[in-house]
Amino acid sequence: MPVILIGFMGVGKTSLAYRLDPNYIDLDRAIERKIKRPIAQFFERFGEAEFRKIEHELLASYAEHKGLIATGGGIVEYAPNLPILEKNPQTIYLKSDFEDLYERIKDDPSRPLTLQGKVGLKELFERRAKLYEAVASQTIDVSQKTPDESLQALREVLGH
């Protein structure tokens, strides 16, 4: 079974995954390879519902993978993903408080969801946080932690 990292955008899923295992699977990059375009372009042309179906297909295809998978922050938005995440014994929620995350992502042009403003992002954060907590087998609070401290906490949870 894979180690699956979940959490809100900007929490460090991709960065930590790379530092832990340079051969990790970045689910968003795998999706982009499959759809042959950036996710933002796909969203614009085909919509979120189509994107989530493809995301689900890939997540399901990696269910027996033995490595590390970094997911996109919205993985919990599509109900068929929830049982896959919940059944996996190593679905790890990287948790941080909203203000820390907002400061990290607010000016990032590669994150179109930031265009909805702080209030909209906070609502999204709160909705997703409940879902992350519901499906995670373990939670690591990375609030106020440096990347090195977060990596160490992840290693401890994984027994590395």
TrEMBL record:
<feature type="binding site">
    <location>
        <position position="73"/>
    </location>
    <ligand>
        <name>substrate</name>
    </ligand>
</feature>
<keyword id="KW-0479">Metal-binding</keyword>
<feature type="binding site">
    <location>
        <position position="128"/>
    </location>
    <ligand>
        <name>substrate</name>
    </ligand>
</feature>
<keyword id="KW-0028">Amino-acid biosynthesis</keyword>
<dbReference type="GO" id="GO:0009423">
    <property type="term" value="P:chorismate biosynthetic process"/>
</dbReference>
<dbReference type="GO" id="GO:0005829">
    <property type="term" value="C:cytosol"/>
</dbReference>
<feature type="binding site">
    <location>
        <position position="52"/>
    </location>
    <ligand>
        <name>substrate</name>
    </ligand>
</feature>
<keyword id="KW-0067">ATP-binding</keyword>
<dbReference type="InterPro" id="IPR000623">
    <property type="entry name" value="Shikimate_kinase/TSH1"/>
</dbReference>
<keyword id="KW-0547">Nucleotide-binding</keyword>
<comment type="subunit">
    <text>Monomer.</text>
</comment>
<comment type="similarity">
    <text>Belongs to the shikimate kinase family.</text>
</comment>
<protein>
    <recommendedName>
        <fullName>Shikimate kinase</fullName>
        <ecNumber>2.7.1.71</ecNumber>
    </recommendedName>
</protein>
<keyword id="KW-0057">Aromatic amino acid biosynthesis</keyword>
<comment type="pathway">
    <text>Metabolic intermediate biosynthesis; chorismate biosynthesis; chorismate from D-erythrose 4-phosphate and phosphoenolpyruvate: step 5/7.</text>
</comment>
<dbReference type="GO" id="GO:0000287">
    <property type="term" value="F:magnesium ion binding"/>
</dbReference>
<dbReference type="InterPro" id="IPR027417">
    <property type="entry name" value="P-loop_NTPase"/>
</dbReference>
<keyword id="KW-0418">Kinase</keyword>
<dbReference type="Pfam" id="PF01202">
    <property type="entry name" value="SKI"/>
</dbReference>
<dbReference type="GO" id="GO:0008652">
    <property type="term" value="P:amino acid biosynthetic process"/>
</dbReference>
<dbReference type="GO" id="GO:0005524">
    <property type="term" value="F:ATP binding"/>
</dbReference>
<dbReference type="GO" id="GO:0009073">
    <property type="term" value="P:aromatic amino acid family biosynthetic process"/>
</dbReference>
<feature type="binding site">
    <location>
        <position position="28"/>
    </location>
    <ligand>
        <name>substrate</name>
    </ligand>
</feature>
<keyword id="KW-0460">Magnesium</keyword>
<dbReference type="InterPro" id="IPR023000">
    <property type="entry name" value="Shikimate_kinase_CS"/>
</dbReference>
<feature type="binding site">
    <location>
        <position position="14"/>
    </location>
    <ligand>
        <name>Mg(2+)</name>
    </ligand>
</feature>
<comment type="function">
    <text>Catalyzes the specific phosphorylation of the 3-hydroxyl group of shikimic acid using ATP as a cosubstrate.</text>
</comment>
<dbReference type="InterPro" id="IPR031322">
    <property type="entry name" value="Shikimate/glucono_kinase"/>
</dbReference>
<keyword id="KW-0963">Cytoplasm</keyword>
<feature type="binding site">
    <location>
        <position position="111"/>
    </location>
    <ligand>
        <name>ATP</name>
    </ligand>
</feature>
<feature type="binding site">
    <location>
        <begin position="10"/>
        <end position="15"/>
    </location>
    <ligand>
        <name>ATP</name>
    </ligand>
</feature>
<keyword id="KW-0808">Transferase</keyword>
<dbReference type="GO" id="GO:0004765">
    <property type="term" value="F:shikimate kinase activity"/>
</dbReference>
